[in-house]
Amino acid sequence: MKRPIQKMTQWASRLYPRAWRERYGDEFGALLEDSQPRLRDAWDIAKEALTMQLRRTAAFAGVGAILGALVGGIVSRHHDRYIASAVMAVSVQGIDSAAANSQAVQSLVKASWTRDALLEIITSLKLYTPDRPADELIRRMRENIKVALFDKTAHSFTVDFVGENPDQAQEVRRALVAHLIDDNIRIGASPPATIQLVDYPPVSHSVPRPATVIAFWTAVGAGVGLALAWLRRRANPQTA
Amino acid sequence: MTDPSLLVLASLADSDKHGYAMMEDIQRFAGVRLGPGTLYGAITRLEQRGWIAPVVSRLASEDRRRPYRLTAAGRRSLEADLARLNQVVRTGLRRLREA
């Protein structure tokens, strides 16, 4: 009949990594039989075994986190973006409704920022990599433009452009706004709508910020490291 | 002096020993009882560093107790550690006398 303390030390011994148990298990068992273990020995064994387990897992997570941080650094450098916004006012003659204002803005945007108009901005401001197909450049530019109604009555709206540097973003913002104002007069929608520039807020750093990107990729790397440690154990129980 | 690795190296300095013999020996010469987990944690690290090695014998398959021996690298490391400790002890004692 085994004493409760012996049972506890044997249970604690099972916490060691499997490879360790296969290498040292027999002699460790002999030591436990010889040394008449005490209660605190069970804690001593469990502590050492868990430290050994964590060290392996932590090593995987640590390497993953470092690689993730490097990836995050590269990604954040390539995805450093700036938002240039314009606040604009809209009013449709004789109609004071959010739906009418919204419709007027949508129609104007569609009529003004045509394929040719955007291509002209891309060419004149040397946006993106010039050797890419025109359709790809336009698609990319459209992804970087955002128009949002500003309040419930839709009396104002914002035009955002996300660019790779603050100066470029400002230039494009100016060009987009100029197109909207000029084309509104040129096209002459019915009923007539008035479009005005209200404000150019300062250019802001795009979200997510580099630190956020790096933190995100570090966490992803650590997570991948943990998953690999787990998969390695499943695939090869000798290392568990 | 309670560093388990140093105690294990010191225990193996005069003869090969298995785990339980090391535990008893360390308790005798250092007054420290190393828990089984701590002792084997130190043995594992020392073997990985090549400072101790299991003794290969024909009886090994019959006896679960596996003796360990100090390697040449382990001896050099122990000598260096003891020299440093000796320097600390001599300095400490001298300063206590002078104080």
Please sum up the structure shown:
The complex is a heterodimer of chains A (240) and B (99). Chain A has 240 residues and is an alpha+beta fold.
Structural notes for this entry:
The complex is a heterodimer of chains A (240) and B (99). Chain A is α+β, with helices and mostly antiparallel strands and 240 residues long. Chain A folds into three domains: 1-36; 54-80 and 207-240, no CATH class; 81-205, Alpha-Beta Plaits (2-Layer Sandwich), CATH 3.30.70. Chain A has eight helices and five strands. In chain B, helix 1 (4-11) packs across helix 2 (19-30) and helix 1 (4-11) crosses helix 3. Chain B has a single domain, classed as Arc Repressor Mutant, subunit A (Orthogonal Bundle), CATH 1.10.10.10. With 99 residues, chain B is mostly helical. At the A-B interface, helix 2 and helix 3 of A face helix 2 and helix 3 of B.
Question: How many E-type strands of chain A?
Answer: 5
Per DSSP, the total helix count of chain B is 4
Supply the CATH architecture of chain B: Orthogonal Bundle
Task: Give the full name of the CATH homologous superfamily of chain B.
Answer: Winged helix-like DNA-binding domain superfamily/Winged helix DNA-binding domain
Q: CATH fold name of the largest domain in chain A, please?
A: Alpha-Beta Plaits
CATH-level-2 architecture of the largest domain in chain A: 2-Layer Sandwich
Number of helices of chain A: 8
Overall SS class of chain A? alpha+beta
Strand content of chain B: 5-15%
| Major sheet details of chain A | 5 strands, antiparallel
How many domains is the backbone of chain A divided into?
Answer: 3
Instruction: Please indicate the count of domains of chain B.
Output: 1
Spatial order of strands in the largest sheet of chain B: 1-2
Low-confidence segments of chain B, given as residue ranges, are none
